[in-house]
Design goal:
By secondary structure, the chain is an alpha+beta fold. Helix content is 45%, strand content 16%. α6 links the parallel β3 and β4.
């Protein structure tokens, strides 16, 4: 008899009735199942138990082993203490559908002699046959759950492969049966379209985010209940739109996978993204998207390539170096790192230091970036130059037709704000004025809506005031486009824009150094598949951008009669530059003299200068300056002429020689040569020539 398994010592202890359902949906809608489980209390009473405790802590929790069940753990703990004579459930599968929990319960019941009761029979785990039967039932329950899950997933996957499984719709879309449709709200549609336009225009999701923040524009997001709300965008909002193929009109399923992990807190499920090749379904042109599939893929690849990895160049940044992320070492294959040096940190320098940073290996190559960037710039402008005028004309035409995107977005915000204010007014107008509890709240909502309308109108007014209409002269545009070098080198040209142009035309640059010839070797891989090699002279170790020897010699001679201010003017008049290519100033002349230990000009204390310029020398000989200059050019008198467009320098000792006296006598005897001015005549202008 079955009742023979229930002994008096079982009835002396209490019985536990375990009630469980697998999901919250079953708890809410499968009420009959709950009623049948609670009705098992009558069966326990009929078997002779008077003390019955119901454990229903695990309602809405699955017994598959993926979640922690507090009710089941409490039941096992009380069984271990020997306080339980029977554990009961409608079906034994309610206890557990995984071997770990099931075997733990059976073993504890065997040790303390506790029976298991369901609607059909009573099991005594101390009996070998019952223990075998319970083991088989536990395995069958676990297998049944796996089988049901596999059938359900197979049907779900088959429907997804046909593109008919629509689980949830992201912001900008709504579910229409087994397909997606665009949100009928025109404000939502144009905001999402604006996201793709700005990302493509600015080249990165981060810059698009900054643009939305700069103009204080909100983006739509979908809440958990399916409603659409507007809030300040973040990077994840924009990146999810770019990365989701649904906005390109494609149906996709199976983009993520769930991975279970075990920790001290129990079982945790983490979601990881799968590679696109591992997706279950990807069907382009399945529905109407916000952009075409080709454009969506181009934007996605551009954003993904902004991550600086070995395969991607990274996003263009504000630095002036054109080849950041594009240049690779020919010796080890690694990308060159970029550093900015100099007093203002504006001089780029490329170096292959990754091997040294990772493994302590020696550096491969290193060189300055100014000369390399100039060579790449010239090669690039030579390619782009022929189409510069046509491109500039087309750009101006496009700019004239381009919509003011900020103004339109603010206009849509104003329209939505006015609708919200009008709706709040209608609610306030329909309320009973005597019911101040309701009318007061509706009045406050109406005031908040009107305040928001005023804020949006103020934004529009500020935007209109900050955007004056500027007319562009087509002739001036043509002249500017013909000189692309001027546009490229202008201080107002954004470095990120120049880098985007470089990356559009150049795929990669492979660099090496020819140590024998002291040259930088660049192999440019153009996007069209053409390769070109450049060789640039490399500055040798210890070499500096020093001042030329001719300038140093000229300064050594000019200090005999001129101070640093006059020397700087003379050097600039002759078109001479410093070692760094700068114009001369008094400070630069002083620094150069100090570096080469050239003495400074000091007037003689007694007024008798040992060196004279042309005017003072002619005045001393009492002849015209022209006469003395012609004699110096003919070599009749010793003189120094450091620069073509510079002063003549005469030694006072040379003016007392017989050659100088002969020039003076000849000038006074020959009426064709002017004899010079009277010694007492004063000059209004001083001259150093």
């Amino acid at each position: 008899m079955i009742t023979d398994k229930v002994r008096p010592h079982h009835l002396e202890r209490k019985a536990l009735l375990y009630v469980r359902q697998s999901s919250a949906h079953q708890v809410l809608h499968n009420r009959e199942s709950s009623a049948l489980q609670y009705a098992m209390r009558d069966r326990l009473t009929a078997l002779g138990w008077s003390e019955i405790e119901v454990i229903d802590d695990d309602l809405g929790r699955s017994a598959a082993g993926g979640v922690q069940r507090a009710g089941f753990e409490r039941m096992v703990a009380e069984v271990c203490l020997g306080k339980v004579g029977a554990v009961c459930a409608r079906e034994v599968s309610r206890f557990a559908r995984n071997s770990r929990d099931w075997q733990q319960l059976i073993e504890m019941c065997r040790v303390v002699d506790t029976v298991l009761v369901d609607q059909e029979t009573i099991y005594a785990p101390r009996h070998g046959n019952d223990r075998l039967l319970l083991g088989l039932k536990g395995s069958l329950n676990e297998y049944e759950l796996d089988l049901l899950r596999q059938r359900s997933l197979s049907a779900r996957y088959e429907k997804a492969r046909r593109g008919e499984l629509v689980v949830s719709a992201p912001v900008g879309f709504v579910k229409a049966g087994d397909r997606y449709e665009k949100d009928p709200d025109r404000r939502v549609q144009e905001a999402i379209t604006l996201v793709f336009d700005k990302v493509q225009e600015l080249g990165s999701a981060r810059q698009a985010l900054c643009w939305f923040h700069e103009h204080d524009l909100d983006l739509p997001v979908k809440q958990n209940n399916g409603d659409t709300t507007w809030r300040r965008p973040n990077y994840a909002t924009i990146h999810r739109m770019i990365d989701n193929p649904i906005y390109g009109g494609a149906y996709a399923y199976g983009k993520t996978a769930a991975a279970s992990g075990y920790s001290a807190d129990g079982v945790s499920v983490k979601t990881r993204r799968k590679a696109r090749t591992d997706w279950l379904a990807l069907m382009p042109n399945a529905h109407e998207g916000y952009v075409s599939w080709e454009r969506a893929e181009a934007i996605r690849k551009m954003v993904s390539s902004n991550v600086p990895t070995g395969r991607h160049h990274g996003a263009p940044k504000h630095g002036d170096a054109l080849l950041a992320g594009l240049i690779r070492c020919n010796r080890c294959g690694r990308k060159l790192t970029l550093k900015y040096t100099g007093a203002k940190h504006g001089i780029p320098r490329y170096s292959c230091s990754r091997a040294w940073m990772d493994n302590g290996a020696p550096h491969c190559i290193a060189f300055g970036g100014l000369r390399v960037d100039d060579a790449i710039e010239n090669a690039l402008l030579a390619v782009v130059g022929p189409g510069a005028i046509a491109a500039a004309t087309a750009a101006e035409k496009e700019a004239g037709q381009r919509r003011d995107q900020v103004r339109e977005a603010l206009g849509r915000d104003l329209e939505a704000a006015r609708y919200a204010a009008d709706r709040a007014f209608r609610q306030y107008d329909a309320a009973d004025p005597a019911n101040r509890l309701v009318a007061g709240e509706l009045e406050a909502r109406w005031n908040r809506a009107l305040t928001h309308v005023a804020e949006v109108e103020a934004k529009i007014a500020a935007h209109d005031a900050a955007m004056p209409v500027a007319a562009v002269d087509p002739l001036a545009l043509g002249l500017l486009a013909s000189d692309l070098k001027t546009v490229w080198s202008a201080p107002t040209t954004d470095a990120r824009l120049k880098k985007r142009i470089v990356r559009t035309l150049i795929h990669e640059v492979v660099a090496d150094i020819d140590d024998v010839a002291a040259e930088i070797v660049l192999v440019v891989h153009w996007v069209g598949g053409v390769h070109s090699e450049m060789r640039l002279p490399k500055r040798r170790r210890g070499q500096r951008n020093s001042t030329s020897a001719d300038v140093i010699t000229a300064v050594r001679q000019l200090v005999l009669i001129a101070n640093d201010d006059l020397i700087a003017g003379i050097l600039n008049r002759n078109g001479l530059k410093s070692g760094n290519g700068n114009r001369w100033t008094r400070e630069r002349v002083t620094s150069m003299r100090s570096n080469y230990r050239i003495p400074v000009f000091k007037p003689a204390e007694d007024g008798i200068e040992p060196w004279l310029n042309l005017s003072n020398a002619a005045k001393l000989l009492q002849i015209a300056p022209k006469t003395l200059r012609l004699a110096a050019e003919a070599g009749e008198i010793e003189a120094i002429h450091p620069l073509p467009d510079g002063p003549w320098i005469f030694a006072r000792a040379a003016l007392t020689t017989s050659a100088a006296q002969s020039i003076t006598e000849r000038a006074r005897q020959n009426p064709r040569y002017p004899a010079g001015s009277h010694p007492g005549q004063q000059s209004l202008f001083s001259s150093i020539t």
